Fold Xylose isomerase.
Amino acid sequence: MKFSSRINSFKARPELFFDTNKIDTVDLIKRMSSVKGLTHVELNYPEHFLQNDIAEIKTAIEESSLKVGGIALRFQKDFNDGEFANPDAELREKAIQTTLDAVNVCRELGGDTVTLWFANDGFDYPFQLDYERAYADTVDAFKRITSENPDMTFSFEYKPYEPRTFSLIGDVCSTLMLLDDVGQKNLGITLDFCHMIMKKENPAYSLFLSAQRNRLVGFHLNDGYGHFDDGLMLGTVHLLQTLEYIYYAKKYKFDGLVYFDTFPKREDPVRECEQNIKMYKILSDYIDSVSMNEIDSIIKSQDAIKIQSLLLSLITKKTSL
Ligand SMILES: [Mn+2]
């Protein structure tokens, strides 16, 4: 299994690890590499390259036990009105150029995936966005970056809202529609558990839809109550849905990066991350102990009582139903 986590989480509770308040990306990588079971790091571009240059970051990663999974774009404040769907052609071009720069950084660090989440491509008011223009510009931008970089995998992470009231592409089906319209094999989907819960999607069903179209690239796992992107620890709110999600990940033989997109603030982020890895492994092992076939027969029975027995057996640590 490949496990990664959010670098910025490791800024939490600095007094538990650091002697100084001046913490840069290299320091955060050092702290991350102390997490038992963590295998990969993903960096935000340009955010994590502002205090340290690529050479320093490369050295820090080589000296750690971690490998680079990929780079995630974080567009800066110029992009208030949108990234790939910005109405200003110059800013749209700047967003594309920033993405192309991120591709080069990703390649240099040995990563293979560039993940895009657009904070500002969306709208807050009726009549605020020309949907037709915004969608067409987004398709064109993706066609360009994917066709110019066939060796790189790109992944679109959808989120229904926040910070915009509506995202332009905010659910699993409009993401799959976008991917179809772009028409490139090297563009896939990153499923964020909390984002799916916010959209009232059932995460395992969104996983199925993405796998069905052969577009599954990455997982962002976490939990939340559904109003905001809470970034809570895996399985703490939606345990049975998390179990179902991991079952389908196994069924479709997902071998990408499992990235814990959680936001520890009061917790020790090292222990919090270890707990997420533990939760994933325990749920995954539990599925194996019951067996994929047995769970498949429960699904086929469509019997809610049998499904509840599955949950009961998990919480009572029995593996026979
Ligand atoms: Mn995420």
Notes: The mean pLDDT is 97. The pocket of manganese (II) ion is lined by residues 157, 192, 220, 261 (CB under 6 Å).
